[in-house]
Description:
Helix content: 25-40%
Number of helices: 13
Low-confidence stretches: none
Strand order of the largest sheet: 8-11-12-13-14-15-16-17
Strand content: 15-25%
Shape: globular
Amino acid sequence: MKKIIKNGKIVTAADTYQADILIEDGKIKAIGNDLSDVYAEVIDATGQYVFPGGIDPHTHMDMSFGGTTTKDNFETGTIAAAHGGTTTIIDFCLTEKGNTLKSALDKWHEKSNERSVIDYGFHLQIVEASENVLKEIPSVIEEEGVTSFKVFMAYKNVFQADDETLFQTLATARDNGGLVMVHAENGDVIEHLTKEALKQGNTDPIYHALTRPPELEGEATGRAAKLTALADAQLYVVHVTCKEAVDQIADARSKGFRVFGETCPQYLVLDQSYMEKENFEGAKYVWSPPLRDKSNQDVLWNALKSGQLQTIGSDHCSFDFIGQKDLGKDDFTKIPNGGPFVEDRFSVLFSEGVKKGRISLNQFVDMISTQAAKLFGLFPQKGTIAPGSDADIVLFDPDAERYISAETHHMAVDYNALEGMKVTGEPVSVLSRGEYVIKDKQFVGKPGMGNFLKRSTFNKAIQKESVVTK
Length: 470
């Protein structure tokens, strides 16, 4: 059914203005004043911001890790995402040595098909740079529309790839329009520090942070950036947490290298002290990279404001406190890494960023939606409000106040890492391709209404303006 959104304030990464939006056949048909259509449902957005739907470029739904599986699958996780104002996720597809990339994608399609309530895409892990894998990457890009590839520099003997694999992936991506992503921590040194901690009987959750110091994130980030420069490729550093990593990204970008960075809401509002909570409560805050000293929060906010970091991902990877996190009660290395953030990413950035004057309203839209669309081959189909774009729209009350709690969230997990945090600003209604997923804060969508997105290749022209050159 056609819809007209009236009386709202449209906000994109570039503009803020009052206008009506006509939606037809899942697309934005027209934007203007006093639009009318006798066959259209009229949506009154008085007092609300009209944002493009959020794009979360970093989720882990239905993923096995540490002997267990994340609580949120593609149904529960995307319902929670939609409640939080996100209309597109890009999930990480894990691969196995010796198996084809296509077989891994088939497995992820099985997990997501007929389950997701919003649109979605995949990133693809590269764990080895075998001849067969490198030959398969171009066809995955062209035929599957999967145009981003993740290399882990950590989790030794599990996910970690060597530098040769990273460099060869960068070179192959350069030639085929792929974007390489890295989890940047020095896994070899972390492995050594972890063994030493356990030898000394240090098993509490805080040692997860103490064995993964920020220097190791900075070193790996710098190494990856230098290999990217050598390959003349493009790099996206996921979940940046600290000054050491920000400095390396800023240095690379100042030299004109195509290096981009993401941080997450947890690193903007939580700090390492949470991992010291008594009665094993610190395990709720175990993920990688770990939370850092509070001083890094200002560094991350400033990097977002200045454009050295471009996006906000949730790194949603939800495990119950009871029955999953407590697998590591006597050994911090057995605590499943991850936290539940897909639902609160949008509101936390608005409340802590816009409302507190750390970023502008247009920067908020850029970070929460537009930059991810540009980097991952979805712009202008996604990430903006413009004629011809998908009608992914969030009607947002900027003055609503609420307290984040596991009692009221829609994620399938038994705790919320942001429990008790007061936020200002809340999605009221959320449309995906012109259809309600959330209406007046109630879920009205259905599993399977989300589409898999075949994405375009990395566009250097779109991103050129985002790289700082001397």
